[in-house]
Amino acid sequence: MDTEEMRRQLRDLTDRAEITDLLNRYLRSLDHGVLDDEWARAFHTEDVTAEMPVGTVHGRDAVLDRVRQGMALFDRTAHFGTNNIIEVDGDRATARGVQLSTHVLAGGRDDLFVSAGHTEADLVRTADGWRISATALRIAWTWGTPPRLPEEFAPAATA
Fold first, then answer.
1. Residue 1's CB: how many other CB atoms inside 10 A?
2. Which residues contact 111 (CB under 8 A, 6 or more apart)?
3. SS3 category, 6
4. Per-residue pLDDT tens over the stretch 95-124
């Protein structure tokens, strides 16, 4: 193996590790983080598109607003992502995986809502590192008491 091939392989491994870290930090931030402008910039491009079970939104500010609204429906959550298949092509990448989300509904009740689905993300390399430019969560199944959605949310989609 020549030096150039070793550099290419090292770059590919580094990119995959950075993308994996970004996706893991994103899910962890939903459970423990502060959802503010800094949060949105740390994970998303300005022109991101996010397809969520409660509708599709465009732009980093819209994603931030929708995630804030969604997370306010729960007192506690635990998000788990796994089985990511990451494909890197220069400064672009895709990640496909599985997400399991457990939620305790807001309001002092101990009602649980669990959802599982398939995730897709398009990512781009920026000056600040990898960022999500498009994402989709397609729910495969749910269990428990669903939250009461605000009127501005689109009906939940299942696939």
1. 7
2. 104, 105, 144, 145
3. helix
4. 999 999 999 999 877 899 999 999 999 999
Position 151 scores a pLDDT of: 79
Collapse the DSSP code of 155 into the 3-class scheme (helix H, G, I; strand E, B; otherwise coil) and give the result: coil
Those residues with Cβ within 8 angstroms of residue 89's Cβ, 6 or more apart along the chain or in another chain: none
Residue type, 88: V
Instruction: Look up residue 46 and give its amino acid.
Output: E
Prediction pTM value: 0.91
Closest CA to 69 of 146, 135, 148, 129: 148
Tell me the CA end-to-end span of the chain in Å, nearest whole number: 45
* Euclidean distance between CA atoms 20 and 108, whole angstroms: 34
Contacts of 151 (CB under 8 A, 6+ apart): none
Here the tokens at position 114 are: 């669990």
Q: Which of 127, 113, 42 is nearest to 73 (CA)?
A: 113
**Six token digits for residue 112:** 């649980």
